């Protein structure tokens, strides 16, 4: 399927990192942007334009927000749950990293809203890391203290969805360049492919 394209006709300072068409029903384009710090951080923020055929936007949003179901289809989830602290819902998420790297964990808040933009129905999910005393850091796991993500999903005009995602985190520690490159070039398309499969399975199980 056809992926997204940038509407302003320019990518600078964004550069296309990968364009993946896993099959006729999934497409993904990833643009990384170096984070400019006084020191060379080697960190990137990413924006992803993708298409998921035969996955309506409401279904995509439901699958993305369903933490229990995600533990079934996301192979990198080690631990994932939501708890309420001081009246606010907080999500704890531990991510498996390849040996010999330490796993990372996240403590964050998120919100999902359905918006009407010029007659277009768009599902928007926002997530951001927070510091919660009730969720202290664990030995042997590196806490990701800077994380933010924005996800927008809308109909592709047929039976599928168009997906836009902005993503940044600072994983801490020494992350080898091969892992950064893999995350951009393979990890994101693989995640969308797994999510597409999850959408199909979700509709069967609910």
From TrEMBL:
Coiled-coil residue windows: none
Protein name: Phosphatidylcholine transfer protein
Pfam families xrefs: START
Domain START: from-to ranges: 14-204
Quaternary structure and partners: Interacts with ACOT13/THEM2.
SUPFAM superfamilies: Bet v1-like (SSF55961)
Compartment list: Cytoplasm
Keywords: Acetylation, Cytoplasm, Lipid transport, Lipid-binding, Phosphoprotein, Transport
A molecular function GO annotation: phosphatidylcholine binding
A cellular-component GO term for this protein: cytosol
């Amino acid at each position: 399927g056809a992926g997204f394209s940038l509407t302003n006709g320019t990518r600078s300072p964004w550069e296309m990192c990968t364009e993946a068409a896993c099959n006729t029903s999934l497409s993904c384009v990833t643009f990384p942007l170096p984070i400019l710090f006084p020191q060379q951080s080697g960190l990137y923020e990413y924006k992803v334009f993708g298409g998921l055929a035969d996955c309506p936007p409401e279904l995509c949003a439901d699958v993305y927000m369903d933490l229990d179901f995600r533990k079934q289809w996301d192979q990198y989830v080690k631990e994932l749950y939501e708890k309420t602290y001081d009246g606010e819902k907080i999500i704890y998420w531990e991510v498996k990293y390849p040996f010999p790297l330490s796993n990372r964990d996240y403590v964050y808040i998120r919100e999902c809203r359905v918006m009407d933009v010029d007659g277009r129905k768009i599902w928007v999910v926002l997530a951001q890391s927070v510091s919660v005393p009730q969720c202290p850091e664990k030995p042997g796991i590196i806490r990701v203290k800077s994380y933010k993500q924005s996800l927008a999903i809308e109909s592709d005009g047929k039976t599928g969805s168009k997906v836009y995602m902005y993503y940044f985190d600072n994983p801490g520690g020494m992350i080898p360049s091969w892992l950064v490159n893999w995350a951009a070039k393979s990890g994101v398309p693989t995640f969308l492919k797994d999510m597409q499969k999850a959408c199909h399975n979700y509709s069967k199980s609910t």
